[in-house]
Specification:
This protein has twelve helices and 14 strands. The protein is α/β, with parallel strands linked by helices. Helix 3 packs across helix 7, helix 4 crosses helix 5 and helix 7 crosses helix 8.
Length: 413
């Protein structure tokens, strides 16, 4: 075990109230001899958070050093929505539900550390995962001299048995269902639920039904499609079926619609930033609907050059979020460009939800670039002269014809 950093008097711990972070809390007290401040974030994970307060009190944390904050609106408004303006998908599929939550948790930890005069922050991410990177890059971007404690990289509690033994010796309550190895691990927030490990580690095997928590099976979804409309203003969803909603309320509503129609499941083998491949199962019901709706309104309102440039930049933007660089200058620079592109992304999109799928069936906008007079097959007084296409084609074909002539002379392909 590494030698603990000396001189730490007070640390702010990202605390869920579960067994692992409760063990970490006690470990910090016994190993560092420091005062622990707990921070529990409500990101819409769907769990009652007051037990976390009770558990912290039981473990000797002062009431004034227990912080529980409802971050649902801030999470969706300032993190999820800006990311969805970019249509961000890591490796073309993953809607980044876990990745986008980490910078907000880290930001709040740093704010609390400043408020209570803490000299360190701590998290419960393991040494093999991406979250350790996301948390710590965010910490250092916001408070460059902060000390960071990552227990999973320091302690010698390397097995479930060792963790349970530590809990028992330190009188940490252990629920019966927590004594054995969990069949899989779950991370959840208002945007998604992700499941990894154990029963999911063999990528050749189908995900068991009991793993899913946010969606019903597409086979069990209604036999009649559900039609909805999503209204956008400057790239952000503001209403569903004409009803204005706050960002978090809107996403929760889309989650229910997605859940009931079996939408948003993703079985993915991805490349972690730390260098290994991992297999995870993601459920993003409302986010999947939002993704298709946003692309639908952009198809009507975004200029071709701007839209194609966004699509070229999106993989870089998504990778920055996945790798933990939300607070980096390059992500912020890309965000300015993305937000500029959304000035006229306003209007309404109609979607059809049916047995695991969501697709756009209609769209309209006061800023539409779609001109029916231009695209119609009917002849009329329009601004497009078919004869102009001949010169356009010849100019674009010039280099291809030149190459073909050379290849004919040289016998090339």
């Amino acid at each position: 075990m590494q030698t603990p950093t000396q001189g730490i008097k007070r640390v702010v711990l990202a605390y869920s109230g579960g067994l692992d972070t409760s063990i970490i809390l006690k470990w910090l007290q016994t190993t560092y001899g420091c005062e622990v401040v707990t921070f529990t974030a409500d990101l819409g994970q769907g769990e009652e958070l007051e037990p976390a307060r009770e558990k912290a009190l039981l473990l000797g944390i002062k009431p004034e050093h227990i912080f529980i904050e409802d971050l649902r609106e801030e999470f969706v408004r300032d993190y999820v929505f800006p990311m969805f303006r970019a249509n961000a998908q890591y490796e073309g599929l993953y809607l980044l539900g876990t990745s986008i939550a980490r910078p907000l948790i880290a930001k709040k930890q740093i704010e609390i550390a400043r408020r209570v005069g803490a000299d360190a922050v701590a998290h419960g991410a393991t040494g093999k995962g991406n979250d350790q990177v996301r948390f710590e890059l965010s910490y250092y971007a916001l408070e460059p001299d902060i000390k960071v404690i990552a227990p999973w990289r320091e302690w010698d509690l390397v097995s479930r048995t060792a963790l349970i033994d530590f809990a028992e010796k330190n009188q940490i309550p252990i629920a019966k269902d927590k004594r054995g190895d969990a069949p899989f691990s779950v991370d959840a927030n208002l945007l998604h639920a992700s499941s990894e490990g154990k029963v999911l580690e063999d990528p050749a095997l189908e995900t068991p039904d009991y793993v899913y928590s946010r969606t019903i099976s597409p086979e069990d979804a209604p036999d009649t499609p559900t039609y909805i409309t999503v209204d956008f203003e400057k790239g952000d969803a503001v209403a569903v079926d004409g009803v204005k909603m706050s960002p978090a309320t809107l996403l929760a509503h889309l989650n229910k619609l997605g859940r009931d129609n079996g939408i948003g499941r993703l079985d993915l083998v991805e490349n972690r930033f730390v260098g290994m491949k991992s297999r995870g199962m993601y459920e993003t019901p409302g986010g999947t609907i939002l993704y298709f709706a946003h692309r639908g309104i952009e198809s009507l309102t975004l200029d071709r050059g701007a839209g194609h440039l966004k699509d070229e930049l999106m993989p870089k933007y998504a990778e920055l979020i996945y790798n933990g660089f939300w607070f980096s200058p390059e992500r912020e620079m890309l965000q300015v460009l993305i937000d500029k592109s959304q000035e006229f992304v306003t209007g309404s999109v109609r979607l059809k939800l049916y047995k695991g799928s969501a697709w756009v069936v209609g769209r309209e906008s006061p800023y539409s670039l779609y001109d029916q007079d231009l695209v119609t097959f009917e002849e009329g007084a329009v601004a497009y002269d078919h004869r102009d296409a001949a010169g356009f084609i010849k100019l674009n074909a010039l280099r291809l014809r030149t190459l073909a002539k050379r290849n004919r002379k040289t016998g090339g392909a």
